[in-house]
């Protein structure tokens, strides 16, 4: 391209002027050049400062040592990013509205800016590699945001005071088993269907000698339901407790209440309002209500490789000998790493997961540990393909439950099934930079599934699958829980003369009559004045005249591995349900409560 002749002449003149001494006079070009450079320099400084301040305030930068020039004599600005995992979109608790609910709380980064005359080195709050110990930034139960959020939820939901803030007082004096260093917690609704399952947890815990506290979190009860539950559990052992929590307001794509969101919300509510309070050093195991204990769960349950099974990719997640800050042990589940997929949504109305965009655009947290470059859909399938039981310290559970609660609306928009709460859980765990240890043997459930504790069950003799002595015989290793969410059949003894499955040859929690918890006629308890309903026409399982489920013979023998698993699960679930019904009568029906 042709250049004008004047351009080099001007440049040479400017260079000559720049080399002249400061007392040179009368050079107009030099004065003009100095003004231009000064203006450019000042503009650059201002732009740099504005860009730096904007980036820091928006939380879009990794923390590092920075000095921000201000106007002369104004010093430097220091920006620190203390990570707070329970924050709202408003600036302070005073700006909550009465319509604000716990479901709207979102984890965002809080920025604290100050001005000083000295430069500052800002320590990075998040490590770039490896799990971050969240104890470095704990969220206290007395945090004003938590306290105010709970107060708002309490006002928004018309439930009596006792339902919101108190656990049920017990009538039996504490014994040596009442060790508050370990809690087993499960979340339920308030139906009779979950009443008998809850008694099943309490009963099986007693049967195996489980130590510590066992707590039911009942969410969304009406005053009448709460009163009935309190009445029913008033004579359980001291360490069997119930806590009442408000109902979630998270809705699914059809506009219905997404009931599974009560699990994180109830967990958060319990940690904030449990009475007596939960010690921060306590270990907490969160299970589902359809769990029967087969073995005790305690601090030393995983202190030796002989005590647990880890197969497949779970072998790459080291198991701590004892739960400590920033660690978690969870059951391996086959849910994969779906939240970290880069695939678009495959269903109309369902959003793509797009976690990077969500954390960046919705939460202003592009540096979330959940977005670490080493977490892909594949690696997430190794680290975060987990489910109940989840075991962690109470001090870790509070920020985890808060994060889990806040992520529920997002997860429901991206998964239209009951896995949404499980995916929200693993995202919350990753966001707190916890890499759980996965093991197989905390439960068995699906007789055709891998990644469960079946290798131990498979070692039982074929003629012992229904023998109740195996549950107490120490020479047999067994999983800690039976998760009876499946249907179990004993096909070898089906009574074909009755047109198919006999009543005692199938076990399904959905076919257990709710009346199994009714007190028998003649009981001194008020419920005993009515005759038992023996199951109802819509149930495949029937109750005996005495009000229990028929049990298979202990001599039932398996011929194949699949039969062994079905017989073991069927017999264990049936006997555990009957034991729960018997314990209910022992705890409640023999005591007169008046009318």
Summarize the structure.
The protein is α/β, with parallel strands linked by helices and 595 residues long. Helix content is 31%, strand content 11%.
Mean pLDDT: 73
Oligomeric state as shown: single chain
What does the radius of gyration come to?
31 Å
SSE order, one letter for each helix or strand: HHEEEHHEHEHEHEEEHHEHHEEHEEEH
Can you give the helix content as a percent range?
25-40%
Q: Total helix count?
A: 13
Largest sheet: 7 strands, mixed
Write the layout of secondary structure elements.
Layout: H1 6-19, H2 28-57, E1 68-69, E2 76-80, E3 112-116, H3 144-156, H4 161-165, E4 182-188, H5 192-208, E5 213-219, H6 223-233, E6 240-245, H7 262-273, E7 283-287, E8 291-293, E9 329-332, H8 355-362, H9 377-383, E10 386-393, H10 394-414, H11 420-431, E11 437-439, E12 443-444, H12 454-457, E13 481-483, E14 488-489, E15 506-507, H13 561-589
Parallel strand pairs: 4-5, 4-7, 5-6, 9-11, 12-13
Antiparallel strand pairs: 1-2, 2-3, 7-10, 8-13, 9-10, 14-15
Helix pairs in contact: 5-13, 7-10, 10-11
How would you sum up this structure, described in words?
This protein has 595 residues and is an alpha/beta fold. Among the domains are: 157-297, no CATH class; 457-589, no CATH class. It is built from 13 helices and 15 strands. The protein has helices at 6-19, 28-57, 144-156, 161-165, 192-208, 223-233, 262-273, 355-362, 377-383, 394-414, 420-431, 454-457, 561-589, and strands at 68-69, 76-80, 112-116, 182-188, 213-219, 240-245, 283-287, 291-293, 329-332, 386-393, 437-439, 443-444, 481-483, 488-489, 506-507. The strands form four sheets. The chain has a seven-stranded mixed β-sheet. It has a three-stranded antiparallel β-sheet with strand order 1-2-3, with helices on one face. A three-stranded mixed β-sheet has the order 8-13-12. α12 links the parallel β12 (443-444) and β13 (481-483). The longest helix is centred in the N-terminal third of the chain and has 30 residues, at 28-57. Residues 1-38, 45-176, 494-503, 526-532 and 591-595 have low confidence and may be disordered.
